Amino acid sequence: MSHQARFNALADWLRGAVTPQERFTLSYNAEASDFIRFNHAKVRQAGHVQQASLQFKLIEDGRHADLNLTLSGDETVDRQRLNEALHQLRETLTLLPVDPYLLLNDDAWQSSNVQDAPLPNSARVVEQIAQLGEGLDLVGIYAAGPIYRGFASSSGALGWHQANSFNVDWSLFHENGQAVKANYAGHAWDDEAFARRFTLAREQLEFLGHPSHPLPPGQYRAYLAPAALEEVMSMLCWGGFSAQSLADKTSPLQRLYDGHATLNPLVSLGEQVTGSLSPAFSSEGYPRADLSLVVDGVAKDRLIDSRSAAEYNLTANGAGWGESPSALSMNGGSLALDDVLKALGTGLYISNLWYLNFSDRTAGRITGMTRFATFWVENGKIKAPVSTMRFDDSLFSLLGSALEQLTSERELILSASTYSQRQTASNLLPGALVSRLTLTL
Question: What is the pTM (predicted TM-score) of this model?
Fold first, then answer.
């Protein structure tokens, strides 16, 4: 029996088991994943994980309680587990107060999306990684396989989502301890695209053996590669588009949404659900559609979950917990990748950033560290690596007045998180050339 058939059978059984006064939502999460770990470009650990679980919410008279269930794949066993969960939640509900911000979706919507493009044979991927990494200190992990998501409710809503994906996350270490971090992810494997990405990492590794170029604190022209820009975007997404944060006046993009500031007209950001790994419905039971968060530097849509909708009299649009984008897409620009160093001229080429945090959240100021393969460039040519340094700058500068160009080519960066399960979050981002980035120490 397929994952979808198992889930539908459990949902049908539950509809017949609840009383007319009871309501429920049921979310399904499953995966069948290969995990292969590398060290010194050799396979050190290989495994396959198959798992499935349910998130079951029972509601009655404004009270609700949740329970997570691990499924066995045996229909009889799983139905019994769901039955026991139903009785346990009934007992729990009697102890709970009414939730004033509970807002259920009563629409009987239907949604189905199956992205089943064939994934590469894992043995072939291992062979290519071993060939490209021969003689190198390569450390990394390859994760691939289908991810399944489902939703059903007592109101008749039914959603299904399946997406195949792969993610190679690796680092190349120099003998001096420095490293180049790289990633290749997507839905359809391309040998040539992976080889190009690997070649770039290998070329950067050679520069790490040069003496480092000392830099005093100050403002420097800089290019942020997509992986570095993703770290900046993660801060912007931390409450930036959240209806709750905007209502509480704690959003780092408060000035943007209040109309007191704009970003560079080059900046257009959207929640691009269509075609992404992310399902077109939330675990709360609201359909999700593509949203235009920022258009030509001006704020548009915001992310609204059911609780914010109830509290602030808004319309829920399928945002998940935390009201952060799960399929963020940023429009590209006109800068060709081959012209990045020439356009940068003299300044910093930044492959990665890390340890980012807010230095002034309401003003949109962030701080963090350069990481892995940050290079000093002179006259369009890489000269030397730069030691780790701290930056402190404003989102309204990096994505506003200081932004000069965006690359025409964008990189799909999938979440590498495997905490309890593989995630479906993604970012589709270009690289960014900025006229100034402030280094503080």
Answer: 0.94
